[in-house]
Amino acid sequence: MVGMKVLQIFDLLKLQCTYSTKITVAILLCIFNISVANAAYQRGYLNLGFETPTIATGSNVCRVYISSTRVPGWLTTHPYGNEGFSGTCSISTNGSGQLMEMWAGSRNIDGTNTTPTNTIKAREGNQFVELNADAVSTISQNICLVNGESVSWKFSHNGRNTANDTMLLRAGAQTITTVSTNKTGDGLVTSCMSGTCSVSSGSGSGVGATTGSTITRWADYSGTFTYTGATG
Questions:
Q1: What is the pLDDT of residues 146-189, one digit of tens each?
Q2: CB of 121 within 8 A of CB of 106?
Q3: Is residue 232 part of a domain?
Q4: Closest CA to 131 of 8, 6, 7, 27
Q5: Parallel, antiparallel, or unpaired for β 12-14 and 127-130?
Q6: CA nearest neighbour of 5 among 147, 148, 149
Q7: Between the CA of residue 34 and those of 38, 45, 143, 201, what are the distances in Å?
Q8: Domain range for residue 130?
Q9: Within a domain: 19
Q10: Which among 221, 117, 163, 218 has a CA at the least distance from the CA of 22?
């Protein structure tokens, strides 16, 4: 059965490429039109905004390293390690596992909290994750795709380094796009390997910055592609 699938991604992620370049990506929302026949399979992302588990209350700033088994829906290739935290957190971090790094609140984009006018928040909601917490790795979900179906996608991405940060989006082995974004949300599609790809730079102007700051964040990327992999 072939249908239209709509994939929209927002709420922040930071990635690190194979050149040890750190990246911030926003992932927001994922909606799929699912037929009854395929209802037994996961056809859409779970916990796309990384709001579960709650790691801090109110506007408290928190960063945790927690096992991916505590983040519903998500898998990671990150090495095993011990959980930990910094800031004002409301979740325990006494375990171990394949780690994901989660942030909450308005955190300094350079990784500290000493410059309150240079902060960044999740693109939507209150929490976001950093890929490659301590090692180059990926995060993913196992989703059933049908060969030949059309997929629409969208994500937001922000850099954290002086040089532009980069990221890659793929569906299984099928590479969709690679992008490059700076710290103020100016983005560029560096390759579009499947279908169409576009960017709206600086579309998150002011989002994530302290009230009154003129700092902009987020480039919003979107496009469509036809899935060419095996159904499943």
A1: 999 998 898 888 887 788 888 899 999 999 999 998 887 888 99
A2: yes
A3: no
A4: 27
A5: parallel
A6: 149
A7: 7, 12, 12, 31
A8: 4-226
A9: yes
A10: 163
